[in-house]
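Suppose a colleague, Dr. K., hands you the sequence of a protein chain of 468 amino acids and asks what its three-dimensional shape might be. Before reaching for any lab equipment, you can write down a predicted structure in token form. Begin with the sequence itself:
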Amino acid sequence: MAKKKKKNNKIVRYRHPLNINVGMIIFAIIFVYMAFSVYTYMKKDKVQFYEVAEGNIVNDTQHTGLILREESVQNTDTAGYINYYVREGKRAAIGTRIFSIDETGSIADLMEENPDAAPALTDENLSEIKRQLSSFAMSYADQRFGEVYDLQYTLEAAVLEYANFNALGNLDALLEQNSGTFRQYKAPVSGVVSYSIDGYEDFDLAQISESSFVRADYSKAITKAGQLIEQSAPVYKLVTSDNWSVVFPLTEEEVSLYTGKQTMHVTFTSNDLEADGAFSIVTGSDGKPFGKLDFSHYMVQFVTERFVSFELETEEVDGLKIPVTAVTTKDFYLIPAEYMVQGGDSSAAGFIKEVYSENGTSGEFVPATIYYSTEDSYYIDMSENSPLKAGDYVVKPDSQDRYQIGASASLQGVYNINKGYAVFKQIEILKSNDEYYTVRKGTSYGLSVYDHIVLDAGTVYEGELIYQ
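The predicted structure, expressed as tokens, is then:
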């Protein structure tokens, strides 16, 4: 029987040759380029931009003024312990009970014997104290640390006043039994009550001078409820008119700035209150100029104050608002305006430049980008890529007059990136503050609303491609 032939199970794989064609090479090149572009984009610092918007800058000046108002100080004709019935800053009519004098101190004993007659501070009392603290905190400055003590005295007086006011209102029946040693005093005229007395109550505008604003020796006395006072001592004052004034010193520059103004917008920094005041310039007793603002409202808000800090809105200018950091400067060649021509069928502006060859001298039209113009000159790019260089001659149209390029001037501007690369645009600054410029809108070679500009001009150069 014949043997079967043994089958060979060993399989040898066929190795296909690597076929590299043109398509694969192109694909690899594109892939590498895209990978490099992505890497470059990720590593490159992003240029921040700012969208130009219409806006304005309001220039404010800081001042500290002296408050003048119609005030009448009231004294007591009896020594003893004083208690108040009217809260500070409240308006009192003629005949309103303002304070009382306890000659022997028996009222304090009555209050101890009748604890139910001395209730705690009301919600209204606490709300007023919180308001005073908040107002002080918002306007506090280390340079005026002395005002902390004024606040302390004011709050102490207020708390004692509220406590006594709440208590004495419930003691009328007991007080009638001790009328021999207890005297009550009423308002002789109507007005707003204040317990802060500083000696300026009779101060007159004719007395104003620079020394009036020296606050080193300034102090105000606040008589506290329950305090023992002497006969004829001042115990409160009545402000009898809603009309009041703020007088403040002026520099010569401010006199020029404010002359002719009749009304000024004022922001009081202590409580962020805004008001319009009638403005005038007066001369002090020392011959120095002072500003005077007259108001007919908000007197009560400042009834305890003598010196007040405020801002004056001096000028508001409308235009395009751009950040200070976006502004840079650039140098340009100046070419007289009469040398500019239009290039043939093109509307592009340019100049006829003298060129020299073996055949002699001829004129060649060179287009130029105009960055700015005046009645006399055009501002032309002076970078290395400019077709016009220093020393070149340009010819006046229809004339033999020649002008050698060389004179230059600088312009302020920003880098516009609307087209994806940085283009210098001239600006005309109208007003400025620490953060923004207001620039003129509608200029021929300037900016428009919604233009995108580089936020920090120092991070780019003209012509640079911008990744947004």
